[in-house]
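wait is this the right file?? whatever heres the structure
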């Protein structure tokens, strides 16, 4: 006989009448989950589920992935190209040929009048790698502008710069399997349960099998901090000081790995001299972490047989972002924790294809981690594309964060935005608005027509999105996974690849360079150019990737043929980089780099007594163009809110649910107060998902190496609002698109 639930209403899962499941890869975060999308007999996408047997997610998905099929038909999608009508100021539909003719005409006009670099291109971390590679070819070899960058400057630039400074090349050296082996894990400014839920699930699973200490460094009591053995609530922007102090204790107590340092690093003397100044007593005053805790963490990390650090935006988005990354690498190097099982320095990346753009987009150089500054690299790529290497600039041009000021000063006159929404995501949006209004010609290429940035465009191009197209993404652990086309592009929208190819045809040089139509043909070009490089993918193909549900690079032809004798015989690629302690610098050694701390953040003071911290929540993705339209995501946080400490609120006479005005030196925003002990007394936290909201307030001082903005360190005051009804209306407007 059955007991218990028999008489209760059983949970019923609606039968979606799926007749076929198609393999693809999630298009939200960089975890890289393999998804199957279910189609009904009309061919409509009606369901999503995690692909069983995939190394990354083993059948699981988070709240975004599980509803991802709903975005194909969500509201606001772009159907036809639009052009602004100069006479009646509105937009009118046009056909693709007329739009692209006009676009090519405007680009040529601007470049002829003000020079090649006066037309800028800013892309994203959300296209397919084949599209990144093609846009890179178009920008570098055909249009020929050096002011070409991606939104990765808002996101991964500090990690890229830090890896290059420490190891001589970009490329995260670790993998998720390291959680299974590590004996100590520090997470710096990373809130995995909300931002990378399936990576967090991998950690949890590893901890269930084998307990190891988890230490979280974050000014907020995040969900990850709640699960940690130790939570170090650091004062914003001071991680470099803590990192120096940890190394200070390790060297003082002789806990370093001497033989590793001697065999595999340069720069020890200078480094030791600098960290000797950061004793735990001094560091405690700056970071707000007491000296005993600093000593304990240093001992725990250095004495563990293997220890690893992971980090995300709490480190990268800072005026010391690149130094923070180098500091983490220093800590890993002095303890001999690189390239070994459970011992690594792993940047958790952000967007689904943040890695693909780093590897292949040519934004910061040339494809396959090649540099514009290197004559051999220029020659190799120029020969392959069939152009004169002198056409390439000799060094990298402006980053996204320098492109906008260059529009202000009139140096840049035209801009093409591809899959990025700066009116929501850049700091100090009032300034961005003025900048966009100044442009002679702005093209916005986005899957949604209703994004705020489109309002400033002279032309809008509707792009297909995610699994309306085919190509690959690379995830945090260098795993290349394939996005298969599941449904046709919405309306008359076209894949970004199609758009780039058809722009190329309209330029003279575009006929000299090959622009293949099919994603797999583009992938073949990348495979060829990857041979012998760190990012070698020559043994992969779309079909092989699907069979394996993702393959990590490097994966060479020899590995594919089983001609190597190492751990790669499983056909899934190398799990770790630098396992032999040989780094990408010419002498094969990594660098220990001294990191003096410069205290330059905007900090709370009399008129602006609160730190403004910003970030994300699990149910939303970025500027909500996708998740804001999906009921099962949007319902959890449909409007802008602010986390505030209950004691701080009561000092100001505020209660839970009040609408308040948050004011910085740049502007103001109306948000709803949510009381929580997650934030300290002198800090508020606002997710950046809502338009016309938190980035009206942020300052975004730039890191000198990476040019990434400090999105998480600004100062604000909170003002009560008398007319709650009017405030509610204003707040509601920020949830529109
Ligand atoms: N649900 C969801 N998931 C996402 C995204 C999304 O929009 N929604 N976006 C993806 C992208 S592009 C990215 S880049 C990642 C971002 O992933 P995360 O970096 O994990 O997310 P954030 O919330 O931006 O910031 C993480 C933490 O940094 C902390 N922090 C602030 N200042 C400091 C500091 O000075 N030091 C330290 N140590 N910590 C600090 C904040 O308190 C916050 O808890 O998420 C990816 N995943
Ligand atoms: N205050 C604050 N600001 C931040 C951050 C923060 O933590 N705090 N984080 C920063 C970070 S880490 C990031 S990554 C940025 C993200 O900033 P954005 O790049 O501006 O964010 P998204 O909303 O993802 O913009 C992507 C756009 O591409 C469109 N799109 C999606 N798929 C496709 C496609 O296949 N083709 C085309 N053509 N378009 C497509 C979407 O509709 C969307 O409009 O925000 C940054 N801004
Ligand atoms: S964890 Fe990231 S990749 Fe996985 S389903 Fe969620 S959003 Fe997609
Ligand atoms: Mo990001």
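ok assuming it is, sequence goes like this
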């Amino acid at each position: 006989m059955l007991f218990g639930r028999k008489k209760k209403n059983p949970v019923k899962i609606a039968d979606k009448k799926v007749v076929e499941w198609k393999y693809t890869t999630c298009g939200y975060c960089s975890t890289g989950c393999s998804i199957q999308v279910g189609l009904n007999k009309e061919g409509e996408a009606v369901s999503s589920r995690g692909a069983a047997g995939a190394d990354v997610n083993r059948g699981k998905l988070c709240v975004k992935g599980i509803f991802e099929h709903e975005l194909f038909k969500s509201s606001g999608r772009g159907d036809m190209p639009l052009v602004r009508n100069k006479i009646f100021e509105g937009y009118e539909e046009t056909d693709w040929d007329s739009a692209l003719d006009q676009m090519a005409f405007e680009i040529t006009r601007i470049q002829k009048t003000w020079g090649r670099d006066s037309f800028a291109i800013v892309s994203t971390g959300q296209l397919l790698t084949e599209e990144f590679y093609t846009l890179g070819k178009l920008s570098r070899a055909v249009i020929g502008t050096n002011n070409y960058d991606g939104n990765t400057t808002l996101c991964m630039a500090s990690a890229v710069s830090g890896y290059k400074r420490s190891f001589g090349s970009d490329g995260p050296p670790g993998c998720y399997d390291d959680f299974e082996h590590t004996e100590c894990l520090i997470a710096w400014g990373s809130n995995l349960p909300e931002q990378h839920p399936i990576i967090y699930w991998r950690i949890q699973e590893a901890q269930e099998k084998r307990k190891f200490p988890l230490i979280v460094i974050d000014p907020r009591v995040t969900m990850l901090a709640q699960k940690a053995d130790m939570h170090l609530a650091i004062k914003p922007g001071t991680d470099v000081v803590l990192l120096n102090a940890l190394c200070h204790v390790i060297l003082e107590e002789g806990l370093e790995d001497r033989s590793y340092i001697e065999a595999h690093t340069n720069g020890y003397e200078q480094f030791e001299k600098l960290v000797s100044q950061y004793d735990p007593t001094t560091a405690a005053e700056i970071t707000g972490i007491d000296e005993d805790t600093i000593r304990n963490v240093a001992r725990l990390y250095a004495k563990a047989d293997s220890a690893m650090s992971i980090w995300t935006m709490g480190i990268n988005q800072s005026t010391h972002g690149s130094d923070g990354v180098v500091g983490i690498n220093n800590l890993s190097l002095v303890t001999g924790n690189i390239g070994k099982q459970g011992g690594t320095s792993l940047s958790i990346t952000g967007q689904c294809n943040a890695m693909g753009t780093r590897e292949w987009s040519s934004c910061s150089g040339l494809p396959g981690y090649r540099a514009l500054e290197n004559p051999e690299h220029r020659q190799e790529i120029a020969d392959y594309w069939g152009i004169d290497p002198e056409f390439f600039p000799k060094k990298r041009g402006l980053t996204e964060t320098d492109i906008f000021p260059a529009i202000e000063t009139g140096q840049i006159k035209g801009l093409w935005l591809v899959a990025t929404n700066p009116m929501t995501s850049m700091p100090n949006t009032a300034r961005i608005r003025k900048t966009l209004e100044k442009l002679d010609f702005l093209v916005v290429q986005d899957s949604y027509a209703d994004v705020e940035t489109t309002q400033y465009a002279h032309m809008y191009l509707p792009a297909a999105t995610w699994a309306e197209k085919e190509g690959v993404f690379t995830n945090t652990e260098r795993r290349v996974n394939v996005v298969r086309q599941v449904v046709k592009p919405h309306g008359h929208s076209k894949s970004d690849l199609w758009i780039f190819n058809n722009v190329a045809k309209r330029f003279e040089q575009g006929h000299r360079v090959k622009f293949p139509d099919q994603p797999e043909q583009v992938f073949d070009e990348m495979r060829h150019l990857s041979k012998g490089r760190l990012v070698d993918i020559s043994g992969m193909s779309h079909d092989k990737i699907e069979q394996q549900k993702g393959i990590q690079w490097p994966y060479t032809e020899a590995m594919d043929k089983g001609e190597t004798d190492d751990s790669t015989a499983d056909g899934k690629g190398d799990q770790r980089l630098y396992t032999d302690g040989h780094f990408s610098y010419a002498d094969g050694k990594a660098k220990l780099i001294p990191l003096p701390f410069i205290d330059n953040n905007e900090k709370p003071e009399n008129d602006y007594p609160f730190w403004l911290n910003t970030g994300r929540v699990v149910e939303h993705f970025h500027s909500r163009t996708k998740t804001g339209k999906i009921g099962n995501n949007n319902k959890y946080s449909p409007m802008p809110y602010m986390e505030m400490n209950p004691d701080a609120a009561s000092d100001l006479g505020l209660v839970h649910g009040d609408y308040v005005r948050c004011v910085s030196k740049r502007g103001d925003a109306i948000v709803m107060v949510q009381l929580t002990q997650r934030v300290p007394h002198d800090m508020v936290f606002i997710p950046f998902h809502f338009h016309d909201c938190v980035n009206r307030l942020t300052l975004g001082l730039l890191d000198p190496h990476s040019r990434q903005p400090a999105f998480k360190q600004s100062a604000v005051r909170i003002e009560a609002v008398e007319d709650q009804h009017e405030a509610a209306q204003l707040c509601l407007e920020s949830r529109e698109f």
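The chain has a mean pLDDT of 95. so i think its the right one actually
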